[in-house]
């Protein structure tokens, strides 16, 4: 018998069985939409790693996480999936035998024969695989209205190490049902377990742990925050004096968790940390000594104010935005890099409100040479790139997954994706000239371009095959966006005005969180561009404070930074309070102490240059240019200039290539190659051996080695050396027949020390 005939016979059998099943009384057999689909999802069958893959697995393809019940019903009852069910003898169905591993199954054993999952699938098949009433959209169809998870926040203490979560589904007909046996429970902390039935178990963990449990049922997801602390009966909370609302929010959470925050850092640590965070540079010896000798009670606040107004602060903030806005010369060319970089810099210097800054970028058009903000679109050549980049940078939304299917971890649908993307569909380019060197590289541009808006053009929603309706992200009344454009308004201007509105809560929260992360190393929402329901803030009260203060400051960067920097939280020591033993991973989201982090590529290279008094070399740049001042990825826009050792060093230590609109492109992890570069690499060896550097100056001056060591400590570590350090270094130099070699060893040792390499 041919395969096509076999398929037709199987389909006919399935149709007859379905017809028979339709007469079953309501509730006697499992609901396909509300029980069978969740079981397949819970068992992992419809995940992207299994049959939910766009190509399916083993000849069976289901919709990702069961997002399309109509398609999956047809697949399982009328097409290839029908060969996996046996309505006459349900137990012989491959849909059951494979997950039981009664026959070979690449996905392994998914459930047991006595499980709830098995019973649901078996009973549904035995009943003839009935379709739910109104499944295709009829008025009688019962839909999931919302998912509730209780408790939403719970703190466990002492011997209470487990917590039962309850997931309740509320349907459109007003009924409710506990769906713990159908929902998926996932813990965000690898050390905290959660059972299939929703029991959170902290096991034998020590100290404090926090976890966010994501609960997923059908197309909805909710979270529960569960915390565990030791539960000390006589706990006494001690903290530095709260300076502002930031301290109150952080210390309030720590008090509840019975955690004492660290004390304030020393003045030596403060001055080095502040210069690195605000300027990307180490303080000079004169700057550090001047601060430490100041008798002013408010010397910390004064230094914060001074550095916030410095040109070095402008340089460092410009670097951060240049990374995010993809200021690189392959697509912008050298002149485009220069004018765009200068425009960003002037905006930073003027402390332009970030909502106005974002509005100017998204509403830009014109020549990329005379209208610098238009370079934002020059680097983003398709509507999809524009929409994804704008969503991620300005709204903290990672929208990419919704291009192919509804987002599996967030609220965004394909309708949201293409409706948002349609705002950018009419952006086009007049390429006045293109002098690219690589004629085969269509992504390289060298010459003036004009960004303009076409009169017509829309993106098509692949789900409907029709023109996508315009949609703002996260707006309940989507008629607002479509109506504004139908009235004849420019699409980009409509988008720009909405994005830059002071009432755009998502934009405000995203940018306030970004500023916090720049100074603290960890966002309240982390990653900082991933605001989704299943990635809640580690301290919601703190995020509320940041949003409120950011608005109060006119959405300018400096006022919020000033508030953060003056807080006791930012000025905490890296040394934990007595009795608090938390790993960096557990301490960071609680802000219980300062967590040391490695200097960025630019901070490290500029720091080495400042310590040695010798500037590294960059391709196409004059001597003396600092790494934080480079406009482009290499040498400020000279893509074809010969790369120098400084360029290679920055790339090795994580400077992004600016081909993604994401903070994640800057790599912060350490590698063996980085270690070898610091130990014996070209840059350090070259700067140490130069005829004109700090070592050469000291040798010519003939001053004592003790003074050299003291000066080195101030330049590298912003503090004087202790007696033991001086004695060890002097002794080493004295033991060398070549004193220059001995001094080079001393400098090399300091440059490779954790105290130099880390921001404490």
Structure, described:
With 760 residues, this protein is an alpha+beta fold. It folds into 5 domains: 3-126, no CATH class; 144-232, Immunoglobulins (Immunoglobulin-like); 267-312 and 507-596, no CATH class; 353-488, no CATH class; 598-759, no CATH class. It contains 30 helices and 17 strands. Strands 2-10-9-6 form a 4-stranded mixed beta sheet. A 3-stranded antiparallel beta sheet has the order 1-4-5, with no helix packed on it. α7 (267-279) packs parallel to α9 (299-308) and α18 crosses α19. Mean pLDDT is 86; it is low at 1-27 and 134-139.
Share of helical residues: 40-55%
Figure out the total of helices: 30
Count structural domains.
5
* Global structural class: alpha+beta
Termini distance? 75 Å
Summary?
With 760 residues, the chain is an alpha+beta fold.
